[in-house]
Amino acid sequence: MSIEILSKEDVLKTTLIMFVIKKIMTKDIAIVALFFLVCAGFFLRAYDVGSSSLWIDEGFTLMQVNAIQEYGYPLLDSGKTEWKDALLPYILSILPTNDVTWFRMISVLFGTASIALVYFLGRSVFGMRVAIIASGMMTFSYWHIAWSRQIRSYSLLIFFVLLGFVLLFHSQKIKRRFIFGMSLSSGILAMMSKFSGVFFLPVALWYETHKKYSEYIRKHRKLLVIMSAFILAPIVWLWRDILQTILGISPFGYLGFYTLGYFWKLFGIVFVFALMGGYVALKYHVEKRKEHQAMIAFFFLSLLMVSFFVYVNQKRYLLFVTPFLFLYGAFFLEYFSSLFKRNTIVLLTMILITISIDQMTTRSLFFVPRTFFALETYTPQPNFQQAYAVLGNVLQSGDKVISAYPFMDQLYLHRSDYAFSLSYTGKNSDLSVTSEHKEYYSGVPEILSITQIKKLSAESNVYIIVDDMALDRVSKKYIDFVQNNAELFWSDEIGSGQSIFIYHIQKVGFEAL
């Protein structure tokens, strides 16, 4: 019998394979799992990301980008300066291309990186298994995938809030002042992404100074309560109408029990587990109680402040607190399974049950790539891309375009003529035109009368492009006139408030209309 001697190359390969297997069989399996989740999250977020049409909120961002590229700051064609959510437009303005795919990829990258941050935050506070489960929920969350595919600032806000907490909790270990400063800087970047990020800053300051001032607060708590009452009294008086609304307990607005109208409807069983996980963490997870207090305080401070100062019932405005639902939902699953001897099997069973219930109810977890993600009610996503392709093929020099969103005309047609005034929020005070009767983003003149439309049609062909939201919110006299006197040239009627229409008024004599 002969004995074969392995070559150095074979020995090296065998050693490497054994090393990898050993790592996978130990706690480093978490890194392998995280790598898989990040890859899966990136794939779901980046899949054919540039194919779907731009929609009006993305148009807002792109008009800021164009202004920054031209002037160095967001000076719009209307003469207004739009600093709102300015971080993303500044990032996009330095890209060497204006391609929609690349613009959306910035959101994709921040959204994907947030998966890793959920893991690192979860591991530092809860442990490895909770971190993996929570980052898995983040990976496959329908709403996080959907909003990571938009040219909007939500994925940046989530990224910098999570990074702020990771750095904040890490600041207790090494280079305390420097890391804490980095944490505050992350909070400022979150605020520059969307103003909601400001809620991180008071929580971070409390966390850092808690030990230093807790004794003082305990000794003088009565005096501090009285002082707070005097400070808050005028605020309460000024906002008494809001308090009356709160007492009305509307389940469908930010005020009152908004969590029932949002977190329960969209996250279902995960939200229920998160509530129980938060209670268990504060009561039994004593060694990390300060961290739990900080995260839960941030969650409820954000909920409270959005309730007081945001008057538009858009669920995405609270998307940035949902990673904490994943963390505490995962923690409850881990805690529940720890009550049993074969806890790993119980934990895996609970995860499968959670996924099954979710898929039968809210379907907040999503596992299959798609090109189009429906967002939420009052977030119009008609197919502007196809509509402007049709319009671009027939539009002649001298023809006029009247639009509810002339900035979308500029993005797709590189021209715009006239604007209908409407309210983006449904409130009479939030008009899309300025006091100078110019559309806010594009600066084109507002249509002021039906007579003006008649005069335009006497001079040229007029094309009017509107979607369902415009039909609902543009002045009824204009909509009635268009529908009664113009030809429906083209439409994409997909329902659910996402339809879009092009009307045509052929050049006629003034008297004909």
What is this structure, in a nutshell?
The protein has 513 residues and is mainly alpha-helical.
Describe this structure in words.
- It is a single chain.
- This protein has 513 residues and is mainly alpha-helical.
- The protein folds into 2 domains: 8-46 and 99-360, no CATH class; 384-512, no CATH class.
- It has helices at residues 8-25, 29-46, 56-71, 87-93, 100-125, 128-140, 142-147, 154-170, 176-193, 200-219, 221-238, 240-247, 258-261, 263-284, 289-309, 322-337, 343-360, 384-394, 406-413, 450-459, 468-473, 476-485, and strands spanning 400-403, 418-419, 462-467, 487-492, 500-505.
- A 5-stranded mixed sheet has the order 2-1-3-5-4, sandwiched between helices.
- The termini are far apart.
Beta-strand percent range: under 5%
Q: Strand order of the main beta sheet, please?
A: 2-1-3-5-4
Percent helix among the residues?
55-70%
Please identify the structural class as seen in this structure. Answer: mainly alpha
Q: Total domains, how many? A: 2
Main sheet specs: 5 strands, mixed
Mean pLDDT, all residues: 85
Number of E strands: 5
Query: Total helix count?
Result: 22
From the N-terminal CA to the C-terminal CA, the straight-line distance is 105 Å
Order of helices and strands: HHHHHHHHHHHHHHHHHHEHEHEHHEE
Shape: globular
Low-confidence stretches: 243-256
Rg calculated over all Cα atoms: 27 Å
